[in-house]
């Protein structure tokens, strides 16, 4: 209805997965990189999770387009299968012929095995991609694991990519699936778009649809990002309705008023602004003591070493309540949902493939890591630092907590992907390949101005992650290359 009015030749915000509207944000590109790394490793399973509408299917389609020609793929869109139906579906997807009336699970398995061996002999890789995998039954997942047992001395004959909602992670934590969980060599949780990506996303789709100018003003884009929470599918719905509202008013530009009207039409009520929760004095005291308890242990441990050597590493014992504003600011900077109040923050963020680094460092060293950070203050409060030009509170104790993006394969039992990522990251900063890895790391630490341990500790990995991973917030996003040139 509004296409001619705005000079468009096609609807720019259709929720259909049209390849011509494919927009890869930084987080989508990072998810794609993790999946690509996973296919290069020796493991059998790769995991991609995300909330509804975050673009998991977009990433999977981009992955399929980038697969080499020597790849045979089976794409399962309906995971509501039993074990027999799974084997039959895989044969159908790979084009394996079988007599349907007299077929058994064993015959199907034998045919799949023969097919995979023949494909490997011809230099081909076989990949199964399962969408909405959170609906898979445990027995079906176990059948998939058994199929991935087929392998040579160096390679798995079958790779399985599981794509699903966060419930898939809960499913894989079940005890009967622990063997499968141990075979996941790469995993990524896709978070919503950041504010800057939302603006690029909207303008990109408008341009593809034929727009010769921007159709959304700045306030409208900011509001649609807030109301959609950065979820692409909801972005499309809101923008489509907002364009219609602007057309009905014969407005040449979509404003925040039109975004609000679109939200009312979609949700059936006015958007309610979240109110800041006020806490009683007693609750505030309890929060402070809980936070101090979490920081005190790591601070005391760090003080046991040499006064000139500061250590910091990951810990699962960190106890921080989620009712403290600075902590919420830290998690919001990563666009994470509200943390669970019954789980330590450093344990909770693991579900999003993030690391939790805590300890004591000089402020200039924290700034070099380049991730937002939470500082402990001696008076019992905390300071959230999200930019280089923010000065630390005079009461800062030196203790901190920050989140960082895990590299591919970091938590997998198959360390091949992680080791390759580490070597590639060192080489990208001029490491001398003739030196031992310990010496390469030590030289990097000296050049970067971070504690020199000669080990890939939490500080070093987070420093590298901030420069080699695309997603996630930065203290200084315009200048992430803090160290340039070669180091010896």
From TrEMBL:
InterPro entries in the cross-refs: AAA+_ATPase, AAA_22, ExeA_AAA_ATPase_DNA-bind, P-loop_NTPase
Chain ranges passing through the membrane: 279-301
Domain AAA+ ATPase, first and last residues per copy: 42-185
Protein's UniProt keywords contain Membrane: yes
Record keywords: Membrane, Transmembrane, Transmembrane helix
Pfam family, one: AAA_22
Residue numbers spanned by region Disordered: 467-488
GO molecular-function term, one example from the UniProt record: ATP hydrolysis activity
Annotated Gene3D superfamilies: Cysteine proteinases, P-loop containing nucleotide triphosphate hydrolases
Domain of life, source organism: Bacteria
Name of the featured protein: General secretion pathway protein
Species for this entry: Pseudidiomarina salinarum
Lineage of origin: Bacteria, Pseudomonadati, Pseudomonadota, Gammaproteobacteria, Alteromonadales
């Amino acid at each position: 209805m509004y296409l001619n009015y705005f000079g468009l030749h096609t609807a720019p915000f259709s929720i259909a997965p049209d390849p011509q509207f494919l927009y890869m944000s930084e987080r989508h590109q990072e998810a794609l990189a993790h999946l690509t790394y996973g296919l290069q490793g020796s493991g059998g399973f790769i995991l991609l999770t995300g909330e509804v509408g975050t673009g998991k299917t977009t990433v999977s389609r981009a992955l399929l387009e980038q697969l080499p020609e020597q790849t045979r793929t089976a794409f399962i869109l309906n995971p509501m299968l039993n074990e027999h139906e799974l084997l039959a579906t895989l044969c159908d997807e790979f084009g394996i012929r079988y007599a349907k009336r007299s077929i058994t699970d064993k015959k199907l398995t034998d045919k799949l095995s023969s097919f995979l061996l023949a494909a490997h002999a011809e230099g081909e890789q076989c990949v199964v991609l399962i969408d909405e995998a959170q609906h898979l039954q445990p027995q079906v997942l176990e059948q998939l694991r058994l199929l991935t047992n087929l392998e040579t001395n160096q390679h798995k004959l079958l790779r399985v990519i599981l794509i699903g909602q966060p419930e898939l992670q809960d499913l894989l934590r079940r005890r009967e699936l622990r063997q499968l969980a141990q075979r996941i060599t790469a995993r990524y949780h896709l978070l919503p778009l950041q504010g800057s990506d939302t603006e690029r996303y909207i303008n990109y789709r408008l341009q593809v649809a034929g727009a010769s100018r921007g159709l959304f003003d700045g306030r409208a884009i900011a509001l649609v990002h807030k109301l959609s929470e950065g979820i692409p599918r909801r972005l499309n719905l809101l923008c489509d309705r907002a364009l219609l509202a602007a057309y009905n008013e014969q407005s040449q530009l979509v404003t925040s008023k039109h975004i609000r009207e679109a939200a009312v039409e979609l949700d059936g009520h006015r958007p309610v602004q979240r109110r800041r929760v006020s806490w009683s004095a007693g609750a505030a005291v309890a929060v402070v003591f809980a936070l101090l308890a979490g920081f005190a242990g790591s601070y005391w441990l760090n003080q046991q070493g040499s006064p000139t050597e500061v250590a910091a590493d990951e810990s699962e014992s960190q106890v921080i309540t989620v009712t403290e504003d600075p902590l919420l600011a830290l998690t919001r900077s990563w666009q994470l949902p509200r943390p669970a109040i019954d789980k330590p923050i450093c344990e909770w963020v693991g579900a999003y493939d993030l690391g939790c680094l805590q300890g004591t460092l000089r402020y200039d060293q924290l700034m070099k890591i380049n991730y937002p950070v939470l500082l402990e203050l001696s008076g019992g409060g905390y300071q959230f630092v999200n930019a280089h030009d923010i000065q630390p509170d005079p009461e800062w104790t030196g203790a901190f907590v920050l989140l960082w993006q895990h590299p591919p394969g970091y938590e997998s039992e198959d360390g091949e992907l992680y080791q390759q990522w580490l070597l590639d990251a060192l080489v990208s900063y001029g490491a001398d390949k003739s030196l031992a890895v310990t010496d390469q790391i030590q030289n990097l630490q000296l050049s970067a101005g971070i504690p020199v341990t000669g080990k890939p500790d939490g500080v070093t990995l987070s420093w590298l992650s901030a420069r080699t991973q695309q997603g996630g917030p930065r203290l200084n996003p315009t200048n992430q290359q803090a160290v340039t040139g070669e180091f010896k």
